[in-house]
């Protein structure tokens, strides 16, 4: 029986000087902030609860990414903002997956995951938003409580670099912990491959309980759907988190069934995002992270 060699965990620097420079350029033009923390040119009735929808308009560099209508983006491939009578500044909560499986492969998914988290943190901090970081695996922890300040980006880079591999993926427990914190309503950015032992149903259940606006960054690679690119023949596969062992013969029939299962998973995640009007970005962990994050914004233009 052939057994694939395991990939060792990497401790290479996640953020070199070139990457940090790209992150800085990714920041959107900071908008002027009106008194009491509200963005300029956005009216408020000071009601403090609920937002009354008014209209749409095209996104322009410098706009608030939290007001993007992701449903329109998926349907038309263009970025529009939802305009409300009241739009207060909202904190951004970054939830990167650091479960054991994220640290395997070459390069490991955790590298692209933490890089994308830092890039989005830079965008939010550049808009004067508070950013907090809450890594999760079998449970969720607090790495950094929400705070504003553009200079925090370097502190966040150091904190993300210090993270260690967690245990088995448990989205349900982790998201319950996050929701129980009672944080002010904001944008929750979940960065993960979303491979939970409970399947896409468990993923949807876990995310459904989050009352914040959602942006899902799905970490993918070509071999996820097409494992024959790296695996062939008779294999003994070991789950890197649970330790469960399965003997598999990678026949055409098995591959066909696997791909059908993977497609159901991917469609289930997309359906959930659509039902919650959440953003969903499939980020190829083997490609350039900054370029892919930039596609969330019209024409993917950087601010130089």
Q: How far apart are the termini? A: 54 Å
Beta strand count: 10
Silhouette: globular
CATH homology superfamily name: von Willebrand factor, type A domain
Estimate percent helicity.
25-40%
Label the CATH architecture: 3-Layer(aba) Sandwich
**Order of strands side by side in the largest beta sheet?**
5-4-3-6-7-10
Descriptive report:
The chain is an alpha/beta fold and 304 residues long. The chain has a single domain, classed as Rossmann fold. The protein has helices at residues 17-26, 70-76, 109-126, 152-161, 171-180, 199-208, 252-275, 289-294, and strands at residues 53-58, 80-84, 92-96, 131-133, 144-147, 187-192, 213-220, 234-238, 245-249, 279-284. Strands 5-4-3-6-7-10 form a six-stranded mixed β-sheet, sandwiched between helices. A two-stranded antiparallel ribbon has the order 1-2.
List keywords for this structure.
Rossmann fold; 6-stranded mixed beta sheet; two-stranded antiparallel sheet; 31% helix; 17% strand; disordered N terminus
Write a compact overview of the structure shown.
With 304 residues, this protein is α/β, with parallel strands linked by helices. The chain is 31% helix and 17% strand.
SSE topology:
Blueprint: H1 17-26, E1 53-58, H2 70-76, E2 80-84, E3 92-96, H3 109-126, E4 131-133, E5 144-147, H4 152-161, H5 171-180, E6 187-192, H6 199-208, E7 213-220, E8 234-238, E9 245-249, H7 252-275, E10 279-284, H8 289-294
Parallel strand pairs: 3-4, 3-6, 6-7, 7-10
Antiparallel strand pairs: 1-2, 4-5, 8-9
């Amino acid at each position: 029986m052939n057994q694939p060699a395991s990939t060792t965990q990497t401790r290479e620097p996640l953020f070199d000087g070139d990457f940090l420079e790209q992150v800085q350029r990714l920041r959107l033009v900071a908008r002027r902030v009106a008194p009491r923390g509200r963005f300029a040119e956005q009216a408020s009735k000071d009601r403090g609860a609920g937002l009354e929808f008014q209209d749409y308009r095209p996104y322009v560099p410098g706009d608030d990414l939290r007001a993007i209508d992701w449903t329109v983006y998926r349907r038309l491939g263009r970025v529009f903002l939802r305009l409300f009578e009241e739009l207060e500044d909202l904190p951004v909560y970054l939830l990167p997956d650091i479960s054991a499986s994220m640290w395997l492969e070459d390069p490991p998914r955790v590298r692209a995951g933490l890089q994308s988290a830092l890039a989005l943190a830079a965008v939010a901090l550049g808009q004067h938003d508070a950013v907090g970081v809450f890594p999760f695996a079998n449970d969720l922890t607090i790495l950094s409580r929400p705070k504003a300040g553009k200079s925090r980006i370097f502190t966040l880079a150091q904190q993300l670099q210090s993270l260690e591999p967690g245990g088995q993926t448990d989205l349900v427990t982790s998201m319950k912990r996050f929701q129980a914190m009672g944080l002010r309503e904001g944008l929750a950015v979940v960065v993960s491959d979303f491979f939970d032992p409970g399947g896409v149903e468990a993923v949807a259940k876990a995310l459904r309980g989050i009352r914040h606006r959602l942006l899902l960054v799905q970490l993918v690679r070509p071999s996820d759907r097409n494992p024959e690119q790296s695996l062939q023949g008779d294999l003994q596969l070991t789950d890197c988190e649970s330790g469960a062992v399965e003997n598999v013969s990678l026949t055409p029939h098995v591959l066909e069934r696997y791909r059908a299962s993977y497609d159901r998973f991917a469609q289930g995640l997309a359906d959930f995002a659509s039902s919650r009007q959440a953003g969903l970005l499939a980020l190829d962990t083997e490609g350039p992270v900054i370029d892919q994050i930039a596609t969330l914004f019209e024409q993917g233009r950087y601010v130089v």
